[in-house]
Please model this.
Amino acid sequence: MEKKRTEAQSTSTRPRDRGRATRHRLIEATARLCKERPGAEVSVAEIANAAGVFPNQVTYYFGSKDSLLVHAAFLGLLHDARRVERIGRQAPDAATFGRNIARAVLAMPSLPSVARALASGISKPELTPVVDQHLRLLFRQSERFASQLLDSRGWRARRPLSVEARTFWSTALGAVLLVRAGAHGTNADLDLAGALTIHDEPDPG
Model:
């Protein structure tokens, strides 16, 4: 009896495992296509072909191509953010850390795709929960990184790290949205490092 129950549970989990694998392949393939062809329109047929699945599986697993594009954009952003973290760990002091982090973030190749994802969340309310889910994940990852870095270096922040992470990314993503909306300027016009309050000096008093 126990053996039959175990076999039934194993059989029921296989479709879920296959579903997760298919979702992952679709997100990875879409992120790769968007990175290879920044700004270009990517069709459902191209995504399905790159992932080795049927086109109708895009809507089956994600509801729409736009939803899949949001997932893929933030996957690229999280990958880029991990590379930025490695750059941040190499900084010898807090001031250099801020400058290096800001420069690396503004050069991330995933930012244009994320800007489109944010715009989709504004124009299509059904995508708002998807965007919110990924933003929360980004903020948590950044907060965790900052906490580990400050603990290991003895640095401090002048506000809660949850606020630090949200403020920093809101500034960076807002700058990209402005550029996409037609605002003139370059990265040199933005003091992204100034959005950080991380320091290695004794607090006054």
